[in-house]
């Protein structure tokens, strides 16, 4: 039966736009409208079935915990996102879950955000490409997803009330593009609006966000659901374009919605539109496949992809270890791995694998272990450290597992510092002082500082959070079964304060001002000339890559293509990530970051092998959001296309010239003298048509320098005895859009 809003009563419609319990939509079985079943994600299922609750207090079904977004981001590889999403899709089908709540593609504005482990990157392109790959793959399994949290939800502090005060250009260039790309390329079934306000208006009630931009401009044709508890005024939310309130309210809100229609606060046509969208979700309804999930195969997959996400930050040659290296393994996380974050994404795992569990596969020797610290701080810190130091002094290599504990970071709160726990820093320093060589393996969801001990150690492997097979994946990398190929999806700064967002994080009195605007992550550090400890895009390999024959070819008024030859010059197979940045700073009066990632591709090559990578740069690689035009604009001018090993290490660059959009700006009497003189239509004829010696005098470069910023009205005023106002009017008329013939 094909049901439409017009077949339903007002009561039925009011129920459809409100959930039932935490995980179901409303069903009308007599009309064949079945409940649609939702479950958290995104890196594994937190399926609770009927009777579940959304606070994580009751157990959920066992599922594979794949690497969380922080790790997927570091893979820089859409196929990693795809493989994970396909497997989660299969697990969802087996359980009868119709929509998975993820991926989370909010930008890591500050390293302090407690939920950074659930987000992909500080860069919108990387987040968008990986997010789109995830959505396409999971939806190909017949499982919808809910891309979250739309939008500008970049902190946990006060998340249900705070207003993210962000100017439009910053939203368009930094905080929207990942959502935009996913909507346009992958057509997600649903989006989840965020809790916060944007410039004072709750995301759930924000018509500009949910209707004008999302649907009007990007063409989103799915449903928008609220984050859990993000609706405060149902009528306002429905009118704005929010379709589904989650979770259900035990029947409290449907009568309010029906009343709002009756008393005219809510237009029934708006309700009907949302009802149609909720009915559209029936397309994702499927009975459980009851397919037998091969949990061993999924665990193996979790291990395989995790190994592709770990980032080798530093290595003096100590890694990879050999099976005969005499090791001391130190740190509680080697035995009790930290591999996922806390909160709504917490998965009840099918199993977990520690580094110690995996060791017998990889080393021929018995390995000594000392915990070095404990997770709750209840033990004797110095005794634990001393025991570890003693073990380390007798080994060839000490491998220390350090990082953040579950209680140090989670959904719900932000961190206040990026330091490792002090006991761990003391431990690393003490061990490094006695061990011939020390390797540090880090497990953390948000970035941690490596200052204070970085120079003491031989190698650092940043695992972030790698999912339930983290221990095996780390062992594979450490022993060289897998050649590391992860790259940082976020900057590791020397100091937290090197991120300009720090001065406006997490805000006060209900507002957080995004005063740093576009200067987020590496965009900030490269623009402000502040070296990172490890820049965005950094990551080492056990092999070496040569980059040669960098070419950039202009392919149109606003596009180009970059090419480079990559050769694996080392002894073993490995993967390199080609990174193309654009420096648009030499154009006009628009402030641009020093460089921005505009294309990337990960390539795997055997020893001695080469390939030529060709990366198209479309108009968005050069455009900025012009608030005057309310549109993307590519200015005419020169752009430098750069090949980076990371965001700080540019190995080749080439300037190109683009003709751009040829936008001719309208002149008014508030436009400055300089804007008039340099205007492409008026400039060349102005001094002839406004026949005035005074004007010719002030137009001389050395005079203009001082008074070029005068609005034309002041000049017109001073010439009023000799130049008729109509002369100015006539010139301005030639700049009106409908009059202009582009020069
Ligand atoms: C989180 C969402 C999550 C939802 C359901 C909310 O608190 O912000 O990301 O999907 O709960 O658990």
Automatic annotation (TrEMBL):
One of its GO terms (molecular function) is beta-glucosidase activity. It comes from the Bacteria. InterPro entries: Cellulose_deg_GH3 (IPR050288), Fn3-like (IPR026891), GH (IPR017853), Glyco_hydro_3_C (IPR002772), Glyco_hydro_3_C_sf (IPR036881), Glyco_hydro_3_N (IPR001764), Glyco_hydro_3_N_sf (IPR036962), Ig-like_fold (IPR013783). SUPFAM superfamilies: (Trans)glycosidases, Beta-D-glucan exohydrolase, C-terminal domain. GO terms for biological process: carbohydrate metabolic process. Residues 576-647 form the Fibronectin type III-like domain. Keywords: Hydrolase. Pfam families: Fn3-like, Glyco_hydro_3, Glyco_hydro_3_C. PANTHER family: BETA-GLUCOSIDASE (PTHR42715:SF10). Catalyzes the hydrolysis of a non-reducing terminal alpha-L-arabinopyranosidic linkage in ginsenoside Rb2 (alpha-L-arabinopyranosyl-(1->6)-alpha-D-glucopyranosyl) to release alpha-D-glucopyranosyl (Rd). It is not able to hydrolyze alpha-L-arabinofuranosyl-(1->6)-alpha-D-glucopyranosyl (Rc). This is Exo-alpha-(1->6)-L-arabinopyranosidase. It comes from Microbacterium hominis. The lineage of its organism: Bacteria, Bacillati, Actinomycetota, Actinomycetes, Micrococcales.
């Amino acid at each position: 039966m094909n049901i439409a809003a017009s077949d339903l009563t007002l009561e039925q419609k009011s129920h459809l736009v409100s959930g039932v319990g935490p995980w179901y939509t409303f069903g009308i079985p007599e009309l064949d409208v079945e409940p649609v079943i939702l479950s958290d994600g995104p890196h594994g299922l937190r399926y609770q079935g009927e009777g579940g609750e959304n606070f994580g207090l009751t157990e959920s079904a066992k599922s594979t915990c794949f690497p969380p977004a922080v790790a997927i981001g570091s893979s820089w590889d859409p196929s990693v996102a795809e493989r994970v999403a396909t497997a989660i899709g299969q697990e969802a089908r087996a359980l009868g879950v119709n929509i998975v709540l993820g991926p989370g593609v909010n930008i890591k504005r500050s390293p302090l955000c407690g939920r950074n482990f659930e987000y992909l990157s500080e860069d919108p392109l990387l987040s968008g490409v990986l997010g789109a790959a995830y959505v396409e793959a999971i939806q190909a399994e017949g499982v919808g997803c809910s891309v979250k949290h739309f939008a500008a939800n970049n902190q946990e502090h006060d998340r249900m009330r705070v207003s993210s005060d962000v100017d439009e250009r910053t939203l368009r260039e930094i905080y929207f593009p990942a959502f935009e790309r996913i909507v346009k390329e992958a057509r997600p079934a649903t989006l989840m609006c965020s809790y916060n306000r944007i410039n004072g208006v709750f995301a759930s009630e924000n018509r500009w966000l949910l209707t004008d931009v999302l649907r009007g401009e990007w063409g989103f044709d799915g449903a928008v659901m609220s984050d859990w508890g993000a609706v405060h005024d149902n009528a306002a939310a429905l009118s704005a374009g929010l379709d589904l309130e989650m979770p259900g309210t035990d029947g409290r809100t449907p009568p309010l919605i029906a009343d709002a229609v009756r008393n005219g606060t809510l237009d029934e046509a708006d309700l009907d539109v949302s009802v149609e969208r909720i009915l559209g979700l029936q397309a994702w309804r499927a009975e459980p496949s009851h397919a037998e999930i091969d949990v061993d195969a999924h665990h193996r997959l979790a291990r395989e992809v995790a190994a592709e996400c770990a980032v080798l930050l530093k290595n003096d040659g100590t890694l990879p270890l050999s099976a005969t290296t005499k090791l001391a393994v130190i740190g509680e996380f080697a035995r009790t791995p930290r591999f996922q974050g806390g909160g709504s994404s917490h998965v009840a795992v099918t199993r977990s694998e520690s580094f110690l569990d995996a060791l017998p596969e990889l080393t021929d020797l018995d390995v000594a272990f000392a915990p070095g610290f404990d997770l709750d701080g209840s033990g004797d810190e110095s005794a634990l450290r001393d025991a570890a130091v003693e073990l380390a002094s007798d080994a060839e290599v000490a491998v220390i597992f350090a990082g953040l504990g579950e209680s140090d970071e989670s959904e719900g709160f932000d961190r206040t510092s990026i330091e490792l726990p002090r006991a761990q820093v003391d431990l690393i320093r003490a061990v490094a002082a006695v061990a011939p060589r020390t390797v540090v393996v880090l497990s953390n969801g948000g970035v941690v500082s490596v200052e204070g001990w970085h120079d003491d150690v031989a190698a650092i492997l940043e695992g972030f959070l790698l999912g339930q097979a983290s221990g095996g994946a780390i062992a594979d990398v450490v022993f060289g079964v897998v050649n590391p190929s992860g790259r940082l999806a976020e900057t590791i700064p020397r100091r937290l304060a090197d991120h300009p967002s720090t001065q406006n994080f997490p805000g006060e009195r209900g507002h957080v001002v995004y005063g740093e605007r576009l200067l987020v992550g590496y965009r900030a550090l490269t623009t402000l000339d502040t070296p990172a400890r490890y820049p965005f895009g950094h990551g080492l390999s056990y092999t070496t890559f040569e980059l040669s024959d960098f070419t950039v070819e202009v392919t149109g008024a606003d596009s180009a293509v970059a090419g480079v030859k990559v050769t694996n010059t080392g002894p073993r197979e490995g993967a390199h990530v080609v990174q193309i940045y654009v420096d648009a700073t030499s154009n006009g009066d628009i402030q641009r970051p020093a460089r921005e990632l505009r294309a990337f591709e990960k390539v795997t090559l055997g020893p001695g092998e080469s390939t030529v990578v060709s990366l198209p740069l479309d108009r968005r690689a050069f455009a900025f959001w012009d608030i005057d035009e309310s549109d993307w604009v590519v200015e005419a001018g020169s752009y430098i296309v750069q090949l980076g090993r990371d965001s700080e290490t540019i190995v080749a660059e080439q300037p190109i010239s683009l003709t751009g959009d040829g936008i001719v700006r309208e002149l008014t009497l508030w436009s400055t003298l300089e804007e008039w003189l340099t205007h492409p239509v008026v400039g060349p004829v102005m001094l002839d048509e406004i026949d005035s010696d005074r004007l010719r005098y002030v137009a001389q470069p050395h005079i203009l320098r001082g008074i070029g910023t005068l609005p034309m009205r002041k000049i017109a005023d001073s010439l009023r005895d000799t130049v008729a106002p109509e002369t100015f009017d006539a010139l301005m008329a030639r700049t009106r859009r409908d009059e202009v013939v582009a020069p």
